[in-house]
Batch of 3 targets.
Target 1
Amino acid sequence: MATVDALSLFTGLGLSEHKARETLKNTALSTQLREAATQVRQTLGSTIDKATGTLLYGLASRLKDPRRLSFLVSYIANKKIHTETQLSAALEYVRSHPLDPIDTVDFEQECGVGIVVTPEQIEEAVEAAINRHQSQLLVERYRFNMGLLMGEQGLGGSLKENTPVPCLTLFSAQVLHLLGPKTETDLEKKPKVGLNMVLGEAAGQTVSLMEQLRGEALKFHKPGENYKTPGYVTTPHTMDLLKQHLEITGGQVRTRFPPEPNGILHIGHAKAINFNFGYAKANNGICFLRFDDTNPEKEEAKFFTAICDMVAWLGYTPYKVTYASDYFDQLYAWAVELIHRGQAYVCHQRGEELKGHNPPPSPWRDRPIEESLLLFEAMRKGKFAEGEATLRMKLVMEDGKMDPVAYRVKYTPHHRTGDTWCIYPTYDYTHCLCDSIEHITHSLCTKEFQARRSSYFWLCNALDVYCPVQWEYGRLNLHYAVVSKRKILQLVATGAVRDWDDPRLFTLTALRRRGFPSEAINNFCARVGVTVAQTTMEPHLLEACVRDVLNDTAPRAMAVLESLQVIITNFPASLDIQVPNFPADETKGFHQVPFGPIVFIERTDFKEEPEPGYKRLAWGQPVGLRHTGYVIELQHVVKGPSGSVESLEVTCRRADAGEKPKAFIHWVSQPLTCEIRLYERLFQHKNPEDPAEVPGGFLSDLNLESLQVVEAALVDCSVALAKPFDKFQFERLGYFSVDPDSRQGQLVFNRTVTLKEDPGKV
């Protein structure tokens, strides 16, 4: 019967029967709409006009704070709020003023309640707005943002709230009078802004991720306006705490990048670094690098160093490097206070008892406060073994997890505090409180932490301390990759990769070792952007960003992987050849390479019996040698006892002394012997961790051809003084970077990427 009554009630507001039934499926919406309609009927009777019904539906569907429902409904019922723009202003007002009581005078002024605007006032305001923007209107014509005009009528919001249709009509008429009818140019579609324009590349500059970011970041609150964020929980202390927060920060944006020092950063962390540091930089704010060092069992000094190195490598400098352990004394004091307030208790359930979807409630949840205080002190003094006691908080999280652990016993010495502590706080307890201590304005984290948002707000409010806002975004993943610390350790243990920095991995140290420029990684993060949804990208998109950067920054050299000796029988005299570092822009300088009677070419650049379309060296088919101005022509093929080609004898001529050859090939003379490592994908399938795609597990999906070592490659001597991480383009082969394994007289190069994307890659 209740459903029938509600259906009649909703159709009485002007909703179609279909929309009314759909509304009933949404419990929260239908409850608010039923209460609103019932209240209005007490004022207006059983007949409600459609305009009022529309406002009530808009109110019920958009109001986030049910406490304000009755207040706003009364304004609609009494026709004080009678337009959509007034309702929007009212909703914005109650959202930005969460505490009681509401200042009704200020509220009514903001919403344009009771203001009557004459046609003459409207016309004057419209004309004034047109005049203010006349020069820009004449330039941009009908592509001008007319919304700017609607926002600047100059009557304290009264036009906007009460007369939108007349204003719009007058604006249209005035603009038509000023500009005349639309021309063909006006009707052309506005060109889309390309990616290069977004990144600033067209202007010859590099713009960081957050300096060009749009989308989700536009929804971010201003410092001190945390309460305007949907879902933010306020208390009677909130506004005073925010006032104190603003006094400390001066309204400055503050973010933090909070890695755990128990592994090496990967490509997903690059997005987090760009987002946190970039957002702060774009808003003239600061970003902390805070190590979440609350688990001494897994933390190692090398991870702290590597994380700092990677942040710096990506081009960011933290405002301050901090540690969760900096705040251990304060965190402990707050834990004691939490027990005093009856919001935490010492529990003796074992870890295995707490696993699963529906673990049993703790039988110690209601133990006396004094007892928990004594037991927590005993935990601190080392009177419990590991696992015998924990401190738990009294709350239920979004995912249904009940009473998360705040402190546990661990007897592992801490890298900074030594044996001072034998109890350590958990992430659920530590993170929000460290954010509060550092007065973080925007706590940016990936989507998997959304289930912890309730505990984040709850804990700050339970202790009456400043509560930042947690914002979640989708993490960045790549196909053909694993980034889990545990699984990378398995890869290392089985010998599939050498270490965390093996160039086949997607850790940041591995990418740097392979030769990926930090600028390319930042550009890739910018292209991916920041969204709520998780993003899984193809590796070739990252490689494309690498090519874009290296094409402009990696000087050219020549190298031969599988060499074939060529003897020039009529060579005039040894020469030194000037080779441009960047053939497309010779203003970037030259390097010198020797050119003698013996050169080496790629074995694949010669064929005795070429197939149709083959354009390189063959009988009767000369080729040019790049940068020399000479052409060579085959005269004799020298073969070994097995019949394999050992060397070629050729003659040479000036390139301008005859017909232009079909191809020019690279070569080396008096070369260096170097080791070159050629890398391919480590895994064969897109999702090596997906049992549906790889039933045998990720270790069964290894590509056995992922590394090929050329131990005696020949490289021109221009690279002789190269240092680790120096980058080159080896002509016709790809981009290469000097590996740290290099020693004096024995350079090692890693192939970073090929010159072009492999068409066989999906």
Target 2
Amino acid sequence: MLGICRGRRKFLAASLTLLCIPAVTWLYLFAGSFEDGKPVSLSPLESQAHSPRYTASSQRERESLEVRVREVEEENRALRRQLSLAQGRAPAPRRGNHSKTSSLEEGTGDSENLRAGIVAGNSSECGQQPVVEKCETIHVAIVCAGYNASRDVVTLVKSVLFHRRNPLHFHLIADSIAEHPAVRVDFYNADELKSEVSWIPNKHYSGIYGLMKLVLTKTLPANLERVIVLDTDITFATDIAELWAVFHKFKGQQVLGLVENQSDWYLGNLWKNHRPWPALGRGYNTGVILLLLDKLRKMKWEQMWRLTAERELMGMLSTSLADQDIFNAVIKQNPFLVYQLPCFWNVQLSDHTRSEQCYRDVSDLKVIHWNSPKKLRVKNKHVEFFRNLYLTFLEYDGNLLRRELFGCPSEADVNSENLQKQLSELDEDDLCYEFRRERFTVHRTHLYFLHYEYEPASDSTDVTLVAQLSMDRLQMLEAICKHWEGPISLALYLSDAEAQQFLRYAQGSEVLMGRHNVAYHIVYKEGQFYPVNLLRNVAMKHAGTPYMFLSDIDFLPMYGLYEYLRKSVIQLDLANTKKAMIVPAFETLRYRLSFPKSKAELLSMLDMGTLFTFRYHVWTKGHAPTNFAKWRTATTPYRVEWEADFEPYVVVRRDCPEYDRRFVGFGWNKVAHIMDAGAQEYEFIVLPNAYMIHMPHAPSFDITKFRSNKQYRICLKTLSRRYGFPALKYLTAENNS
């Protein structure tokens, strides 16, 4: 930028010595003579400008300069075409179109700068760009209540973090996002705000949450002076600090920064008898708002919008576009409140909008707003480019955005300091360093990734099936849902891209979409180990019932097990005793199995060799204490004693011990948990009429690592000594290595 400024001053000095050269020639030269930030060489003219032999009447030199200007213009046109083709950019509209759209491009407070906003793209006039201090914190408020919004906000936050150079402070109404360095997040309970706006009838698909931006002056901290408010269906294509800098352009009583609405909605001519809320001209879109909170509070904003809404609702009866209708009605009465932002700060991709007039090139784009219910299926000439940009952030690895800002230290965090201290105490030369370090990894987690709605049974006997899985076990979900009608809590270990694949898989499944009592919690991949016990703990923590069935994703429970367990909870008085009810585990080697519908049928299949007790041929000790011989004839629950290496699948109260998250990958993870339960004096009770069957699958990456990597087994054995002895699964693997 400084180089460009110096270049312009040189040209200006030269131009003052050249008499009789039309001013418009120099304007064209300035507009079209820069390539890669350097001025086109005019050294002959510059040297002549200081020469006594140079005369203003030199017709030859004037003609030479004009020829050079035309050449430069042509070169730049060719360069723009090449760049558009090379980067797959949309062709630019003709210059003539801009005279028709100046109202979209100009800011009401600074039109002399913003008139050139589209033409200049992301560049700015020399010395006129407002400054945002290097470590100045930018405040962003987002209403992200509801399951779709909680997913959309992740993509929005990624796009903001990708471009940002300043510390950020997010103010989120409702849902949680991951932690990042130099990013602070405050949460506000949406349920506590419902009473503020629930009296307003709203037809918009956003429901009651679509009205909550109206109460931000009351909701956000009283000492917060300004904030950028964003819808969740926004994608940033530039540093948000550029938008924050626009606050410096507000003048007088301007307290709202908004982009003009790019559809004809508020013009009232979309269909016969179309009657929108009152608005100033085309009205304004509230997907991106700059709020001067301190001034709004002084103006009694709460009273202002409430009185306006009450008055208009007498005739309109309800809002059609949620908060946007009320904002526009207030602005209609008080136009001085608005600073009109250039439309590239909110390129609205609804059907039949004028969004294409907001940009001439990719570099002009700053904020893309998917404000149509159709979202990615919206009609737009360049929608393929916009869709690819959105999908890039959708599947972008969020771990890559966890970076410190140089020169802007994060706020002191006791947990982070303790974590750093613990990490510093590890010996990096230790061959088990990566194994030990894994337990300190802070994984990004997205709770309730899909819609979940369930109220536990009123008799306090409800049981949640708890399990964890990765992408290669998705095929088990539908079968488990068919076998278990009760609530399920699942932790899925996925990358950002895999999370989107899972979303498409689930949305395409009638079985999964028909179940609202299955909670899916995404734990995003990080590191080289599979954090199996961390995943189990996440799923356990968010089981919403008094009891949990701690299963694995490869097992199918018997039909009717859910109701049987609820009855057993009462029979064995689990509410008042420390018991772990064991569900005996079996396995089949057949991918297609006629699942036994009763204990008698299962025993018959055992005798025929179609079924086996689980892992009897490789790890007998894991389930031998269940005493399968006794189970065959048992009609009442019976107690068994804990033994070394015992790892049954159990039903316990929610207050049972957590899994030890230091165990990662394959080996010892369930054994250690059952050992903890035994140490805490849990009784192990085998249920006589319950069973589960393990379905065959290809070996996991972690079991392969266990069998083939001797150092992995050594590290695991070292960790297991905490429990008094080094028993491990598949010891034959160690003996054979």
Target 3
Amino acid sequence: MEYQRDENDIEIEGGEMADDKEFLRGPLLVRNRKNTTSQIAIVGANSCPIESLDYEILENELFKQDWRSRKKVEIFQYVFLKWTLALLIGLSTGLVAFLNNLGVENIAGFKLLLTNNLMLKDKYYQAFAAFAGCNIVLAIAAAALCAYIAPAAAGSGIPEVKAYLNGIDAPSILAPATLFVKIFGSIFGVGAGFVVGKEGPMVHTGACIANFLGQGGSRKYHLTWRWLRYFKNDRDRRDLVTCGAAAGVAAAFRAPVGGVLFALEEAASWWRSALLWRTFFTTAVVAVVLRGFIEFCRSGKCGLFGKGGLIMFDVNSANANYSTLDLIAVIFLGVVGGILGSFYNFCIDKVLRAYSIINEKGPIFKVLLVMVISLLTSCCSFGLPWLSQCIPCPPQLAELCPTAGRSGNYKNFQCPPGHYNDLASLFFNTNDDAIRNLLTSRVEKEFHISTLLVFFVAIYWLGIVTYGTAVPSGLFIPVILAGASYGRLVGNMLDDLSDLDVGLFALLGAASFLGGTMRMTVSLCVILLELTNDLLMLPPMMLVLLISKTVADTFNKGVYDQIVKMKGLPYMEAHAEPYMRQLVASDVVSGPLMTFSGVEKVGNILYVLKVTGHNGFPVIDEPPYSEAPELCGLVMRSHLLVLLKGKTFTKQKVMTGSMIVNRFRAHDFAKAGSGKGVKLEDLDISEEEMEMYVDLHPITNTSPYTVIETMSLAKAAVLFRELGLRHMCVVPKKTGRPPIVGILTRHDFMPEHILGLYPHLHHYE
């Protein structure tokens, strides 16, 4: 048999890297990659084999027969079920987001109330012991869940969701165990006082919920309802996961329109109008669910849970008038935010690489690292407010000053009666309350410049060192916190020159920092407007986001793109790299090629499946089945396994397509949920059966996407990505040659592969 490259091939030998610079720049897994037939990437802290998803619609005889036999009522059921699942995703994600908020607010509330009561009694050492003790217990709980149950739940999860929607299937990234750990790990991690957000994990949670609901039923749990079989394919699951990601953003920020735009701009690689409608419907359901729960909590039945409405940080009361001089300040905020954001990404990249060395040593080391970071965070949160001066309480306040309980924002800390500690008001709060304090107008709250500077430096670096530990950790909230403190700091410095309120400067600072790290514009703009309920700030916010993104793009990529690359996930970009224009499709195809005949011997098929990890094989028709050798199509590995298990073999080499069509149904070849399909080990083929033949025509995709061998690699890459392909057949330009030159897969378009074959193209990067 001949050999073909597939997405499971690997080019890089294992062992330690010879070049230290490559470790600082390349994917983390290159250091310990073994020579194997499976392409691998980092999931959690482990190197795992990955495959591509089958987003292409396969057109073989069985699937055509299935579509022809569908009645109008079945088509209606399919459409109805799509909308029903979108509704269930919205309801489930909204419920999980509410429970997440409830858990965080009550756990953090109990911790802060206990510490505050001890502080009021001047028991400062006991207060620190209680504060740090609660934090470290919660941190250990979050880390243990991540380290021992679902390592894939660590981090924000947005890079993994983005990779899945690009067509990359990595183990456990959307598994039920990951969903469980993501929910509870996020509650414990945020409640432990880490400088992390629950927003990124909510996106991953929404995607996990969507994947769980879209599994297409389960024979194990007797959920094999006839309707559910329609969703046993990657294409429909991809659409559901897109809805889940949008629902996660909508639930985290209470920004339904922003959720749709986030999925469109950042998460999804393929989009169409029908999907826009469903994601919008899903996020609308989330908004209604959250609104209902918040109204329920206004009666005080939710413990220490905050009573804020759907608008999380209402700054609508601040003065939004701005002059030409203010626009110059906005431009300055954008430039500085872009520089700070790109440096933030640079530091996160280096910290993640350093942590990978620790995390690889085992789960116990992951937990120990989390404990160290927890202790550092507790020391900063409790120790730094002692550097701040006490400020007299503003007169005619609606709320009590200083705060007697947890929910107020004027923390007494060590100050005398009638005074509050402004730095403690930021550190001794939940992250949401700290952001709310920074976005309030000067009339309601005053912060010293020194306070804002200390808080900015602390949050900036704590956010960097915390991300990459074994806890579910979002980047949105740390970035908003750092950006808002830096923006308010600039607003305080320009107090005499500007008409703009310092709270609005804080909002613009947060926008500039988000633009500098995330590199999103439209979705961030809408999310921030929905968060703050301040439409008058739209023009300066658009300006600051555009400037910060432009400035940051000159230094490095967005934080999620960096993490995707670092994990070794073979992400297909929307554009082709410049060096691809110097090559044609046949230049990167490896051979010789492995093919099957239209009617193939069982032993040959079994041998090929055993010695290769390929997932697609060309089927060639030869005389007497055709006048000359011709490409019949492409057959999938999973379909071959199902066919072999059914044992529809013949002793003669004859076509038996009608027998196979009568024996099997299309849903027999549908993709099983969570990798529960037929495996090679499940086959029991006797020696006699090995010499028999099987007809591959009924399961062969007779219309695979093909390109001519002289097509530029750049054009082939764009086509591959836009169509969401797993395999692309390369056919010869001239007759008289074999009907197929080779197969292009995702791996063949990766820079590491192409530049490894043609090192002289490095200067085109």
